[in-house]
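User: Please fill in residues for this 129-position structure.
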């Protein structure tokens, strides 16, 4: 697979992440209560920034260092989890522990939906690379 095909896949991944994150944000804010707005914003920001950056770093690794792909996926998984834990801790510290259950549940919706999307997308793409 050449560089232009990888760039198209990365662009497609970016568009899918933006659409999926936007739909989750709209759905949670439309169906949820008022206390779900801040957790939804944090989850939306986390998924948007992390997965867009992840897609473009994947492009760089896939186009230049294909033999590092297994290490890249392992590292991405670990970093995503540690970053999520850091966000939980920061939110707990800033919000003084108020309503952590709602925050965790809303944030985990973003985390799990985008994790499933990431796994499906890159399992299909990695077979072609």
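Assistant: Residues filled in for all 129 positions:
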């Amino acid at each position: 697979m050449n560089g232009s095909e990888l760039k198209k896949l990365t662009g497609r991944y970016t568009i899918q992440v933006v659409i999926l994150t936007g739909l989750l944000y709209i759905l949670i804010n439309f169906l949820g209560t008022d206390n779900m707005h801040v957790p939804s914003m944090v989850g939306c920001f986390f998924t948007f920034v992390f997965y867009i950056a992840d897609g473009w770093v994947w492009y760089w690794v896939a186009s230049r260092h294909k033999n590092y792909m297994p290490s890249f996926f392992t590292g991405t998984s670990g970093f995503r989890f540690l970053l999520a834990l850091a966000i939980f801790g920061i939110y707990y510290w800033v919000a003084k522990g108020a309503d952590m259950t709602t925050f965790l549940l809303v944030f985990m919706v973003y985390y799990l939906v985008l994790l499933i999307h990431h796994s499906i997308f890159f399992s299909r793409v990695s077979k072609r690379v």
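For context: Helices lie at 3-31, 37-64, 69-94, 100-128.
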